[in-house]
Write a structure and sequence with these properties.
The structure holds two protein chains of two kinds.
Chain A lengths: L6 E2 L2 E4 L2 E8 L2 H10 L2 H7 L9 E5 L4 E7 L19 H6 L15
Antiparallel strand pairs in A: 1-3, 2-3, 3-5, 4-5
Chain B lengths: L6 E7 L7 H9 L4 E4 L6 H11 L9 H15 L2 E4 L6 H15 L6 E5 L4 H6 L18 E6 L3 H9 L4 E3 L5 H13 L6 H14 L27 E5 L5 E5 L9 H8 L9 E2 L3 E4 L4 E6 L2 E5 L2 E4 L3 E21 L3 H18 L6 E7 L16 E10 L2 H17 L5 E19 L6 E4 L2 E2 L2
The chains are: A alpha+beta, B alpha+beta.
Chain lengths: ~110, ~450
């Protein structure tokens, strides 16, 4: 399924770096997002945009992840040649990611 | 919250081209103590510095007159003070403009304070050894520098309010600090009370982009619906003396204020959620939670902070050549193939003229202009070719648009709607400057106070 089905998010810009939040709609969605929305999965989706290392932060109280993606904005708002210099649309590249529909089995449960 | 304990601060604008009407709606429908207009993007101040060089009486935000004219009288009648960074590169001139509007529209004297001292070009020229956050030496862009402005904090804005000013106008002030300053002033909070700084900075961070808290940049029909999109109201915060925060929007306005809208906005433009650095403190939002207490009323809690750092961030604006761009559209059978032939032909014509670009970018709008190759194959019915290039040579940048428009007559069949643009690039980079090298000043009615 698409991440879009269980989460929403917003992209922000600072210089040439985009940050994209991913917020699960509910607790079940949060378990899936937390388990499966890895840096590798995001890096694969953003391979056509940037190859810089991505940083991932977890905010369990908000059921949210925050991805920091350097080099994603074509040099930054002021000098980018791109149409979306702020990268506002990139949140939907994130939400387009295919993700398994079940969280990983918890090894502690029998 | 007991009424006398509460300070109300509202967002009147969240960027330079923001809508005008919601500020007035907020002022007339909510009893605000302060109305904040945040209208200064990173690069805006560089452009205004250039304007001021040519016309010394200008250099403030072009929307200043319209925004202040629309709210000044109702604000003064209700005791709502105004705080803004619309002074951009010339807060003193902006204060004069506000003074003129006040004389025309308000019956009583209006006290106006301007904040200066954020411009640090001279300091940077004396310190070429500084390194940009992007990694290069400052020296590399110093000859092309247009502007350099340090982000000032809430302390100087609070001091400006302490002079009794009804309107405070600065230039480069950190966005959240504009709001925090109102709370420092209204509640007499101490500038070293870290828990209050955390709460006030969270308020500022949430409000600084206006409608992005109240349903803007949020709607996704069928998934995240927002009622009354045409009339999205701007947000305000009611904050008690202990730092308890209740967020609201103008009664009867459109839009949506919910836990979801607040969660998206609290992470907006945040990198490390434990270290959102402002001139006032280092905010940690990992403990923040939101609770909807009524429709369109959300309580925010759990902000923590560490004391501010020893340096201030400086944004340096500099000339970075020219960007030229052109577009042309194709539709129907073979649309994409004809667009690709146009790209090849233009590349060849540019090469034949010996034109050089630091970077040349080609987009197929409708296919790959926003998410790169992620959109996959599948030929579209219509496609718009866009080519853009950056060059230190103005003629090279201009040639892109020229060659694209020439395609109407000299290109493949059925190319329509050619368009072109050319702009001078004012780019920005950042550095950190020790605080003691920055000297903010407050100018009240033309007289320096500090």
């Amino acid at each position: 399924m698409k991440l879009h089905q269980i989460a929403h998010g917003r992209a922000g810009d600072k210089g040439n770096t985009s940050n994209i939040s991913v917020v699960a709609y509910d607790e079940a969605g949060w378990r899936i997002v937390r388990a499966h929305l890895t840096i590798d999965r995001v890096a694969k989706a953003f391979a056509g945009i940037t190859s810089s290392p991505i940083i991932r932060y977890e905010l369990p109280r908000l059921r949210a992840l925050n991805f920091v993606i350097p080099g994603a904005l074509g040099g930054g708002v002021t000098r980018s040649l791109g149409l979306d210099a702020h990268g506002k649309s990139l949140s939907y590249l994130m939400l387009n990611i295919d993700i398994p529909s079940e969280p990983l089995a918890d090894p502690r449960t029998p | 919250m007991p009424e006398q304990d509460v300070v109300r601060v509202g967002a009147g604008a969240g960027f330079s081209d923001d809508r005008l009407d919601p500020a007035l709606e907020l002022v007339t429908k909510v009893k605000l103590d302060y109305l904040v207009f945040e209208c200064l993007a990173e690069r805006t101040i560089a452009r205004e510095t250039l304007t001021r060089t040519k016309r010394p009486e200008l250099g403030y935000s072009p929307s200043l007159d319209a925004r202040i004219r629309s709210v000044l009288r109702p604000c003064m009648e209700r005791g709502t003070r105004i705080v803004t960074n619309m002074g951009a590169a010339n807060p003193v001139a902006a204060a004069k403009v506000v003074g003129e509007i006040a004389r025309e529209t308000v019956r009583r004297p209006v006290r106006i304070a301007a904040i200066t001292g954020d411009a640090v070009e001279d300091v940077l020229r004396r310190n070429p050894q500084l390194t940009l956050l992007e990694g290069e030496p400052l020296e590399a862009i110093l000859p092309r520098m247009v502007s350099a402005n340090a982000y000032l904090g809430a302390d100087v804005v609070r001091d400006a309010l302490d002079t009794g000013a009804d309107v405070v106008i600065g230039g480069r002030i950190a966005d959240p600090s504009l709001f925090l300053a109102c709370l420092l002033h209204g509640h007499r909070w101490r500038y070293d009370d870290i828990d209050r700084l955390a709460a006030g900075t969270l308020v500022g961070h949430l409000l600084e982009c206006s409608a992005q808290l109240t349903g803007g940049c949020f709607a996704d029909p069928g998934v995240k619906d927002v009622p009354g999109m045409a009339c999205i109201g701007f947000p305000f915060a009611s904050v008690d003396r202990n730092g308890s925060i209740l967020l609201g929007k103008a009664p009867g306005s459109g839009g949506l204020l919910s836990v979801a809208t607040c969660t998206e906005q609290v992470l907006y433009e945040v990198h490390d959620p434990q270290a959102y650095i402002t001139p006032d403190c280092v905010l940690d939002i990992t403990g923040v939670a939101f609770e909807e207490v009524a429709p369109n009323a959300v309580a925010a809690m759990g902000a923590r902070a560490l004391p501010g750092t020893e340096s201030l961030k400086v944004v340096v604006g500099y000339h970075d050549g020219w960007i030229g761009a052109g577009e042309i559209g194709y539709a129907g059978p073979n649309a994409l193939v004809r667009a690709r032939l146009t790209e090849q032909t233009i590349r060849e014509r540019l090469r034949m003229q010996g034109l050089q670009y630091e970077e040349l970018r080609v987009d197929y709008i409708g296919m790959s202009s926003l998410h790169g190759r992620a959109s996959g194959s599948g030929d579209p019915y219509e496609v718009r070719l866009r080519m853009a290039g950056r060059s230190s040579d103005r003629k090279a940048a201009q040639a892109l648009g020229f060659e694209i428009r020439a395609m109407h007559v000299n290109g493949p069949a059925g190319g329509g709607g050619g368009a072109s643009s050319l702009r001078e690039v004012l780019a920005v980079k950042s550095l950190l400057l020790p605080r003691h090298l920055v000297h903010p000043q407050i100018v009240v009615e033309g007289r320096a106070e500090t």
